Amino acid sequence: MTNNIWRIALVSILLFLAFSGCTTTTDETSVSNDDVLFQISTIDSLIAGSYDGVMPVCELKEQGDLGLGTFDRLDGEMIVMGGEVYQAKADGHIYQVNDTTTTPFAAVTFFEADDTITIGSGTDYSFLQSTIKEMVPGPNLMYALKIEGTFANISIRSVPAQSKPYRPLLDVVAEEEAVYHHESINGTMVGFLLPYYIENINVPGYHFHFIDANRTIGGHVLACNLTSGTVELDYTYDFTLSIPESSSFSDALPGDKDALKAIEQ
Q1: How many Cβ atoms are within 10 Å of 28's Cβ, its own excluded?
Q2: For the chain, what is the radius of gyration of the CA atoms?
Q3: Which residue ranges make up each domain of the chain?
Q4: Measuring CA to CA, how many Å separate 12 from each of 3, 9, 26, 88, 229?
Q5: Known InterPro entries for this protein (predicted)?
Q6: How many CB atoms sit inside 10 A of residue 247's CB?
Q7: pLDDT of the chain along its 265 residues, tens only?
């Protein structure tokens, strides 16, 4: 009888420790996931013309609540903010996105600001970038950024959905990009500042998409001037890359740095 009592007690203790360990591990995972940049596919495959959607928006939202990307067939610019996914089509307007809509390329993270910078009047795109670089701990981390404010002016672009056979991204941008200029507008830029070693996987340096406060217009940011605003920075220490199971991805050729620079600017 005594031995049985001890056996029961030992089993109870082990079960308690096991469940305690699972609870602790789950909490730690939840915390660490906040500092992960998740990405589907690579910028090189997108540049090469791999535009077929491979991940539904519902799955992408499980990986982050802020970020950017594009949609199946390169149909516009993606803005992810506050857990919602917005589509800026070639007409410059914002559209709601169905959870079953797919993306060929996107990057997201669960955004929690680690630092905030106040922006003053007369801050153009170049000065904005240099101001942020002066504030961050160093060039080798990944930073998610959210910039809210009043813009004296902003230039944004988008591209229309493509048809097969797909042309390289540089050709699409050169021949079909639609550029829009807006003045005296309130809104938010979301994006990333990524290090040099991310080359061929994502865009080194800055990459921003814009959405106005009324959620009616948006696109890829080409230039801007801020009247006032704030920059929130989230330092990101881990990176997860999801590789598409598609022939268009596996057959994509290495990207061209000059092509990427031309596309982004």
Answers
A1: 10
A2: 22
A3: 34-264
A4: 14, 5, 21, 57, 57
A5: Acetolactate_a_deCO2ase (IPR005128)
A6: 10
A7: 444 444 444 444 444 444 444 343 444 434 446 799 999 999 999 999 999 999 999 999 999 999 999 999 999 999 999 999 999 999 999 999 999 999 999 999 999 999 999 999 999 999 999 999 999 999 999 999 999 999 999 999 999 999 999 999 999 999 999 999 999 999 999 999 999 999 999 999 999 999 999 999 999 999 999 999 999 999 999 999 999 987 778 777 676 667 787 878 6
Dihedral pair phi/psi, residue 70, rounded to 5°: -145, -175
Query: Concatenated DSSP letters for 128-158?
Result: HHHHHHHHSS-TTSEEEEEEEEEEEEEEEEE
**How many residues comprise the chain?**
265
Residue found under tokens 């992960």: 36
34-264: which CATH number, 1.10.10.10, 3.90.220.20, 3.30.1330.80, 3.20.20.70?
3.30.1330.80
70 within 8 A of 106, measured Cβ to Cβ: yes
DSSP string, 162-192: --SSPPPHHHHHHHH-EEEEEEEEEEEEEEE
Helix, coil or strand: residue 36: strand
Whole-structure pTM value: 0.86
